[in-house]
Amino acid sequence: DQMQAIAAEMNLSETAFVSSSSSSEADYELRIFTPNRELPFAGHPSVGTAFVLYEEGRFGKKASKFTVRQQVKIGLLPIEIDPTADGVRVMATSGRPERGNACEDVEAAVSALGLRMGDVTGTGLPVEASSTGLQQMMVPVVSLDAVRTMKPDMRAVTDLERAMGITGFAAFVLSSHGDANVHMRFFTPASGIAEDPATGSAAGALGAYLVRHGAVDVSEETVRLVIEQGEEVRRPSRIEVEVEHEGGEPKVVRIGGASVTLMKGQILA
């Protein structure tokens, strides 16, 4: 209850709480809360927490790449920390990639997101749930302009999240403003987050979805993508995604990128 109250007060996409783990195989345990619920896994809290612990010297003085293991609700997950001359790069392994159900009412989802049917059906890709720890609905869109100008009905999106048993909708297009491979927006008002500026779990789930459906080049054993997000809420982000696969079937997904400290403070009461 205290963790949930603190997360509500912070009012950020997620607030992460660190403690020692009951597992001898884990370096620490992580619990993750949105403003109104606990999540079994999330990407950015995983990356950010590992980075903060490294910055605080909790892993000792290390100048080369090393791996730590976090315990979260979905299990034990490794995180690779790579100190370089340009900063610290952190790549967190997500949960096992799983293909979810196809959306049973695409029209309702498209309408709730403020899109037109042609914006979605024109891609030739399915509206389908994908998971690397959280079931999230992937919604392909034909153009960057359609993604940028969409105006979701948050009440309708909330109702659909609950009815479908998912955590959010990821609307994406296979183009970007710069050199990223994908532009994405993510909405999960049922979790207290209208639009998230950066969603590691959804980026990982999207990477698995794209590999599974052959929407990206799968000629290499590891597919590497960059996903841009957050420009519409003036908090731009770039998320690196790595998907190891066998014949187009995702096996291991990692998400992350360069990490920096943004602010520090104390909770006084």
Mean pLDDT across every amino acid position: 96
Order of helices and strands: HEEEHEEEEHHEEHHEEEHEEE
The percent range for strand residues is 35-45%
- Structural class given helices, strands, pairing? alpha+beta
Number of strands: 15
The CA-CA distance between the termini, in Å, is 15 Å
Please give a structural write-up.
The protein has 269 residues and is an alpha+beta fold. Helix content is 24%, strand content 36%. It has helices at residues 2-10, 43-55, 106-112, 117-121, 144-149, 154-164, 200-212, and strands at 15-19, 28-33, 38-39, 66-72, 75-84, 87-93, 98-102, 128-131, 135-140, 169-173, 182-188, 193-196, 222-229, 237-246, 249-259. The chain has a 15-stranded mixed beta sheet that branches. The protein is globular. 41% of the residues are buried.
Summarize the structure.
This protein has helices spanning 2-10, 43-55, 106-112, 117-121, 144-149, 154-164, 200-212; strands at residues 15-19, 28-33, 38-39, 66-72, 75-84, 87-93, 98-102, 128-131, 135-140, 169-173, 182-188, 193-196, 222-229, 237-246, 249-259. It is an alpha+beta fold.
Question: Could you give the topology of this structure?
Answer:
Blueprint lengths: L1 H9 L4 E5 L8 E6 L4 E2 L3 H13 L10 E7 L2 E10 L2 E7 L4 E5 L3 H7 L4 H5 L6 E4 L3 E6 L3 H6 L4 H11 L4 E5 L8 E7 L4 E4 L3 H13 L9 E8 L7 E10 L2 E11 L10
Keywords:
single chain; 269 residues; alpha+beta; 15-stranded mixed sheet; 7 helices; 15 strands
